[in-house]
Amino acid sequence: MNMPNVLRPKHFLRWAVEMFGPVALRRDERLDRFLEEAIELAHAEGVGALHLNRIIKRVYERPAGDTYKEIGQAQACLETFAESIGLSSDGEAEREWHRVQAIPKEEWTRRHAAKVAVGITAVPASSRQDWHYDSQGYCDNPGRGY
After folding, report:
1. Does pTM surpass 0.85?
2. Using a CB cutoff of 8 Å and minimum separation of 24, what contacts does 91-95 make?
């Protein structure tokens, strides 16, 4: 059964809390998952890591935007991209909703543990490695609170 797209985000969030617990409600966790999926989409379309690093550098050289505006822009860009390649972002989100429902909780637990192991999910500070800079000068952001 298809659900109205206005309800889907609420259902996805409730599902995420059921699968992963309270960590799913954390802003930093939601952003990590969004970034991961956005990068996976870019990777699927053949965008290389060097190009991504150029975009990251440009973004971080400018002042931070307003969250509400950036959410709207991110969604508008995704919808426009999908439309430009003949897909419906709403239709693909609906398909994803049905796909994730078929995956057992144990598999989601395994996937989350793998993300914890490499430090790309929200976990208490005591569980994280020390912050470090890479050869390009990029640093994990200690101001995010985890």
Report:
1. no
2. 93/5, 93/8, 94/2, 94/3, 94/5, 94/8
